[in-house]
Amino acid sequence: MSPAKYIRWFKEIRNEDVATVGGKNASLGEMYQDLTKVGVKIPNGFAITADAYWHVVRTGGIIDGIKGALAGLDKTSVADLAGRGKKVRDLILGAGIPDDLWKEIRAAYDQLCEEYGPDTDVAVRSSATAEDLPTASFAG
Fold first, then answer.
1. Domains along the chain?
2. Per the confidence metrics, is the pTM higher than 0.85?
3. What is the pLDDT of residues 27-70, one digit of tens each?
Protein backbone atom coordinates (compact mmCIF):
# COMPACT_ATOMS: atom_id res chain seq x y z
CA MET A 1 0.00 0.00 0.00
CA SER A 2 1.26 3.47 -0.80
CA PRO A 3 1.96 5.95 2.02
CA ALA A 4 -1.14 7.13 3.82
CA LYS A 5 -2.60 10.37 2.58
CA TYR A 6 -5.14 10.92 5.35
CA ILE A 7 -3.66 9.10 8.36
CA ARG A 8 -0.85 10.22 10.69
CA TRP A 9 0.58 7.89 13.33
CA PHE A 10 1.37 9.22 16.81
CA LYS A 11 5.09 8.76 16.05
CA GLU A 12 4.67 11.33 13.25
CA ILE A 13 2.69 13.97 15.16
CA ARG A 14 3.98 16.90 17.23
CA ASN A 15 2.32 19.96 18.74
CA GLU A 16 3.12 21.86 15.54
CA ASP A 17 0.55 19.64 13.79
CA VAL A 18 -2.55 21.05 15.52
CA ALA A 19 -3.86 22.46 12.23
CA THR A 20 -3.62 19.01 10.64
CA VAL A 21 -4.77 16.67 13.43
CA GLY A 22 -6.21 18.85 16.21
CA GLY A 23 -5.00 19.57 19.70
CA LYS A 24 -5.79 16.25 21.40
CA ASN A 25 -4.06 14.26 18.68
CA ALA A 26 -1.05 16.58 18.65
CA SER A 27 -0.73 16.09 22.40
CA LEU A 28 -1.06 12.32 22.05
CA GLY A 29 1.72 12.39 19.48
CA GLU A 30 3.94 14.39 21.82
CA MET A 31 3.27 11.99 24.70
CA TYR A 32 3.83 8.92 22.55
CA GLN A 33 7.13 10.20 21.18
CA ASP A 34 8.52 11.69 24.38
CA LEU A 35 7.34 9.24 27.01
CA THR A 36 7.70 5.86 25.30
CA LYS A 37 11.44 6.38 24.95
CA VAL A 38 11.73 6.78 28.75
CA GLY A 39 9.70 3.66 29.46
CA VAL A 40 6.18 5.02 29.94
CA LYS A 41 3.69 2.74 28.19
CA ILE A 42 1.63 4.91 25.86
CA PRO A 43 -0.59 2.94 23.45
CA ASN A 44 0.10 3.49 19.78
CA GLY A 45 -2.55 5.07 17.60
CA PHE A 46 -3.28 7.26 14.63
CA ALA A 47 -5.13 10.42 13.70
CA ILE A 48 -7.36 11.01 10.72
CA THR A 49 -6.36 14.39 9.30
CA ALA A 50 -8.30 17.52 8.47
CA ASP A 51 -7.47 16.74 4.83
CA ALA A 52 -9.61 13.60 5.23
CA TYR A 53 -12.54 15.76 6.34
CA TRP A 54 -12.17 17.96 3.27
CA HIS A 55 -11.89 14.86 1.11
CA VAL A 56 -15.25 13.66 2.48
CA VAL A 57 -16.82 17.08 1.86
CA ARG A 58 -15.47 17.36 -1.71
CA THR A 59 -16.13 13.75 -2.69
CA GLY A 60 -19.63 13.91 -1.25
CA GLY A 61 -20.38 17.08 -3.21
CA ILE A 62 -21.75 18.83 -0.14
CA ILE A 63 -19.76 22.09 -0.06
CA ASP A 64 -22.59 24.13 -1.59
CA GLY A 65 -25.10 22.46 0.75
CA ILE A 66 -23.00 23.40 3.76
CA LYS A 67 -22.64 26.97 2.54
CA GLY A 68 -26.39 27.13 1.94
CA ALA A 69 -27.19 25.75 5.37
CA LEU A 70 -24.99 28.39 7.00
CA ALA A 71 -26.02 31.35 4.82
CA GLY A 72 -27.78 33.99 6.87
CA LEU A 73 -26.90 32.42 10.21
CA ASP A 74 -28.23 34.45 13.12
CA LYS A 75 -25.22 34.45 15.45
CA THR A 76 -27.39 35.61 18.35
CA SER A 77 -29.76 32.64 18.14
CA VAL A 78 -28.76 29.30 19.64
CA ALA A 79 -31.88 27.74 18.09
CA ASP A 80 -30.87 28.95 14.62
CA LEU A 81 -27.34 27.63 15.11
CA ALA A 82 -28.66 24.27 16.36
CA GLY A 83 -30.98 23.85 13.38
CA ARG A 84 -28.31 24.75 10.86
CA GLY A 85 -25.76 22.59 12.67
CA LYS A 86 -28.10 19.61 12.32
CA LYS A 87 -28.45 20.27 8.59
CA VAL A 88 -24.66 20.35 8.19
CA ARG A 89 -24.20 17.17 10.26
CA ASP A 90 -26.84 15.41 8.16
CA LEU A 91 -25.04 16.45 4.98
CA ILE A 92 -21.71 15.14 6.29
CA LEU A 93 -23.20 11.86 7.51
CA GLY A 94 -25.00 11.42 4.19
CA ALA A 95 -21.80 12.00 2.23
CA GLY A 96 -20.30 8.74 3.47
CA ILE A 97 -16.63 7.80 3.63
CA PRO A 98 -14.80 7.60 0.30
CA ASP A 99 -13.32 4.18 -0.46
CA ASP A 100 -9.71 5.40 -0.47
CA LEU A 101 -10.11 6.98 2.97
CA TRP A 102 -11.88 3.90 4.34
CA LYS A 103 -9.03 1.69 3.06
CA GLU A 104 -6.48 3.85 4.91
CA ILE A 105 -8.48 3.74 8.14
CA ARG A 106 -8.92 -0.03 7.84
CA ALA A 107 -5.21 -0.56 7.09
CA ALA A 108 -4.22 1.55 10.10
CA TYR A 109 -6.61 -0.37 12.36
CA ASP A 110 -5.28 -3.67 11.01
CA GLN A 111 -1.77 -2.47 11.86
CA LEU A 112 -2.90 -1.78 15.44
CA CYS A 113 -4.34 -5.30 15.57
CA GLU A 114 -0.98 -6.68 14.46
CA GLU A 115 0.65 -4.78 17.32
CA TYR A 116 -1.92 -5.46 20.07
CA GLY A 117 -3.89 -8.52 18.95
CA PRO A 118 -7.04 -9.34 16.98
CA ASP A 119 -10.08 -7.09 17.36
CA THR A 120 -8.11 -4.51 19.34
CA ASP A 121 -10.30 -2.08 21.27
CA VAL A 122 -9.71 1.55 20.41
CA ALA A 123 -10.83 4.92 21.70
CA VAL A 124 -12.15 7.39 19.15
CA ARG A 125 -11.71 11.05 20.05
CA SER A 126 -12.80 14.17 18.28
CA SER A 127 -10.00 16.69 17.97
CA ALA A 128 -10.98 19.90 16.22
CA THR A 129 -8.15 21.77 14.55
CA ALA A 130 -9.34 25.17 15.78
CA GLU A 131 -10.08 24.42 19.42
CA ASP A 132 -6.52 24.95 20.66
CA LEU A 133 -5.66 28.08 18.72
CA PRO A 134 -4.73 31.13 20.82
CA THR A 135 -7.74 33.05 19.48
CA ALA A 136 -10.28 30.30 20.21
CA SER A 137 -12.13 29.39 23.36
CA PHE A 138 -14.19 26.21 23.65
CA ALA A 139 -15.90 24.78 26.68
CA GLY A 140 -15.42 21.05 27.18
1. 1-50+100-129 (3.30.1490.20), 61-95 (no CATH)
2. no
3. 999 999 999 999 999 999 999 999 999 999 999 999 999 999 99
